[in-house]
């Protein structure tokens, strides 16, 4: 009930006999031993012994890693391959689950297998893990089960997941390079200021001559870093922690970031293309599964990845529900290029929106790939210049007094 707090489920080890009288054993999640036995009986198992699984001493044993979207993408492809090869669904789960390296993933897949063996549909079993299998995933699997084309739908799901993960990977690649360089530049600069510059400062003090302004500034920075390095690290940590907490807790802050990154001079265009690719790929996959357009738009909005596109797609959904065509609703958002709108209009007239959206997705996924390559080529000279100014500036500041002494001599 809504007002009650759900009781924590524990893992129970059990031994029993199946419907044929064969001895079997395994694990089951339940709130109590009685409920564990009831669940086993529902699955056709006669429980003989049920006991709570002991926790490992001193935190030992296998610790499951977090289940990532990449794990789900790989699982989808494995299941599609198994089903296409004629392997039964339950046996496919057994093979994929037992062979997975991540204990958390293995545990989840075996629970889903047990649910299916207990009489639940594939989609119902998946829906119990909403963090890993969203509405789109469950809708596609359900459509495949209802139409008797589960292996075909699993192939579409696998392709969709692989494409979306590829887009995410390209965006991360574009972001990682400059961030890594900035971190490296900070670390090298800190090392120079804390360990190297003080040696030069000691040597310059013995000269007794006036130092250039640039050298004095670097020496002052070095003195501050030597005395208060822990404050600098504390400030950096506090800023990063505050940023992370604000992003996690405040929707308004997340929305602000989403809008800001789309306006960024270098990355904005790349993120626009990625959002269009995700929109087209998701909607194409939903259409191919026979999901009604208005219902599909809700799922597509959730998969957009940026609040600007999410809000625009939700407005499109509301307009489509009043009778406006998809291409008209897209045009009114002013977020989609004319080429995309025209292709969708052709698809609507020809009754092949899913095929046209798939072409749009292919085109923009390639555009993202090319943009990431171009961005990497552009960033390399900029990064070299950045490092040259920061590191080179420190080196020049330290050698300026020596150059001046050489001129005097």
Tally of contiguous helical segments? 15
What is the CA-based Rg, rounded? 29 Å
Mean pLDDT metric: 81
Question: What sort of overall outline do the alpha carbons produce when their principal axes are compared?
Answer: flat
| Order of neighbouring strands in the sheet with most strands | 2-1-3
Distance between the termini: 89 Å
Unreliable stretches (pLDDT < 50, length at least 5) are 1-7, 56-62
Percent of residues in beta strands? 5-15%
Decide which structural class fits the backbone: mainly alpha
Helix content: over 70%
Topology pattern, helix = H, strand = E: EEHEHHHHHHHHHHHHHH
Number of strands: 3
How is the biggest beta sheet arranged? 3 strands, antiparallel
List the helices and strands and how they pair.
Layout: E1 10-17, E2 23-30, H1 33-42, E3 46-52, H2 69-84, H3 89-98, H4 103-117, H5 122-127, H6 135-147, H7 150-207, H8 213-249, H9 251-262, H10 267-288, H11 293-302, H12 307-321, H13 326-333, H14 338-350, H15 353-408
Antiparallel strand pairs: 1-2, 1-3
Helix pairs in contact: 2-3, 2-7, 3-4, 6-7, 7-8, 7-10, 7-15, 8-15, 10-11, 10-15, 11-12, 12-13, 13-14, 14-15
Overview of this structure, please?
The chain is mainly alpha-helical and 409 residues long. Helices cover 74% and strands 6% of the residues. Strand 1 and strand 2 form a beta hairpin. The longest helix is centred in the middle third of the chain and has 58 residues. It is flat and about 95 Å long. The N terminus is likely disordered.
């Amino acid at each position: 009930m809504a007002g009650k707090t759900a009781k924590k489920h524990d893992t129970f080890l059990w031994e029993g006999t199946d419907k044929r009288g064969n001895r079997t054993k395994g694990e089951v999640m339940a709130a109590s031993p009685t409920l564990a036995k009831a669940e086993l009986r529902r699955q056709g198992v006669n429980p003989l012994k049920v006991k709570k699984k002991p926790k490992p001493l001193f935190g030992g044993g296998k610790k499951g890693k977090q289940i990532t979207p990449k794990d789900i993408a790989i699982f989808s492809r494995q299941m599609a391959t198994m089903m296409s090869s004629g392997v039964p669904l339950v046996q496919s789960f057994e093979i994929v689950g037992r062979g997975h390296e991540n204990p958390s993933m293995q545990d989840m897949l075996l629970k889903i297998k047990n649910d299916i063996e207990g009489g639940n549909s594939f989609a119902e079993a998946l829906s119990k893990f909403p963090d890993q299998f969203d509405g789109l995933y469950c809708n596609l699997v359900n459509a495949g089960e209802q139409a008797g084309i589960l292996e075909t739908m699993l192939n579409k799901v696998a392709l969709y997941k692989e494409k979306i993960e590829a887009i995410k990977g390209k965006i991360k690649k574009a972001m990682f390079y400059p961030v890594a360089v900035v971190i490296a530049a900070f670390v090298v600069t800190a090392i120079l200021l804390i360990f190297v510059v003080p040696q030069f400062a000691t040597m310059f003090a013995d000269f007794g001559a006036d130092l250039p302004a640039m050298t004095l500034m670097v020496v002052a920075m070095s003195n501050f870093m030597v005395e208060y390095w822990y404050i600098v690290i504390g400030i950096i940590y506090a800023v990063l922690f505050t940023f992370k907490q604000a992003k996690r807790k405040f929707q308004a802050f997340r929305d602000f970031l989403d809008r800001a990154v789309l306006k960024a001079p270098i990355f904005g265009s790349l993120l626009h293309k990625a959002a269009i690719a995700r929109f087209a790929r998701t909607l194409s996959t939903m259409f191919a599964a026979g999901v009604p357009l208005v219902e599909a738009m809700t799922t597509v909005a959730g998969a957009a990845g940026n609040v600007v596109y999410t809000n625009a797609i939700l407005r499109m959904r509301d307009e489509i529900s009043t009778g406006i065509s998809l291409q008209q609703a897209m045009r009114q958002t002013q977020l989609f290029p004319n080429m995309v709108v025209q292709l969708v209009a052709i698809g609507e007239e020809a009754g092949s929106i899913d095929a046209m959206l798939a072409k749009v997705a292919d085109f923009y996924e390639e555009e993202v790939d090319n943009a990431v390559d171009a961005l990497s080529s552009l960033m390399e000279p900029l990064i070299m210049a950045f490092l040259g100014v920061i590191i080179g500036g420190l080196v020049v500041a330290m050698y300026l007094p020596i150059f001046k002494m050489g001129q005097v001599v």
